Amino acid sequence: MNHIVFDLGGVVLEWSPYTLLKNYFSNSIDQELVIQKIINHPDWIQFDCDTMGSKEVAERGAKRTGLPLQKLEAFLEDVPASLQPKPESVDIIKELHKAGIPLYVLSNMSRPSWDYISRTYGFWELFSGKVVSCLAGKAKPDPSIFTYLLGKFQLNPRETLFIDDTSVNITAARQTGMQALQFSSPDQCRKDLREFGIL
To answer: I need a surface site. Which of 9, 75, 123, 164 has the fewest CB within 10 A?
Structure first.
């Protein structure tokens, strides 16, 4: 495989909304409301594409769910710092980079989260290029963001492996002709990469 593309949240970085939500909503019903009516709502894609700000996401979410606006705003404010690196995933990236394989990022990420992680973590130099939804104005699983990535960096889809933790994004990548593997853990990812003849 000539190129490898990594998703960020859930793959390179921790993304555990249920864990974070427990800081604001002790009731599991309220936690599930936030997941289903805010994070899995189309507003979240607009948030990731930088066409809707966190204040509007919180306000609209509060109206849909009846949950306190201040708690939703506080939750959204704490999302960026919750995106901590997965050390084992970063180790894999370092090994691939050392092996001379060009690495890329393709991630849905809101502007506040991207601003935070891009200035906080120091492994970005390991990537040859990055496509992030808040900068591109489009988001997975829309096929256009995959074709945008391939065109921007002149990647042959048949020679490009995409790694993501979400099945719908894996399906979208394969529909563009890319190879893809679904991430569930760093150990599993390392095993799958070996099966691809990598690492």
So the answer is: 123
pTM of the model: 0.95
* Cα gap 66→81, rounded to integer Å: 26
Question: What backbone torsions phi and psi does residue 4 show, to the nearest 5 degrees?
Answer: -130, 135
β-strands 179-182, 103-107: how paired? Answer: unpaired
- Using CB atoms within 10 Å of the CB of residue 52, give its burial: 0 to 12 exposed, 13 to 18 middle, 19+ buried: middle
Nearest to 125 by CA among 97, 153, 167: 97
Distance (Å, rounded) from C-alpha 25 to C-alpha 17?
12
Residue 111, both tokens: 């502007």
DSSP-derived 3-state class of residue 82: helix
Amino acid at 175: Q
Sheet holding 129-132, edge to edge: 129-132, 103-107, 3-6, 160-164, 179-182
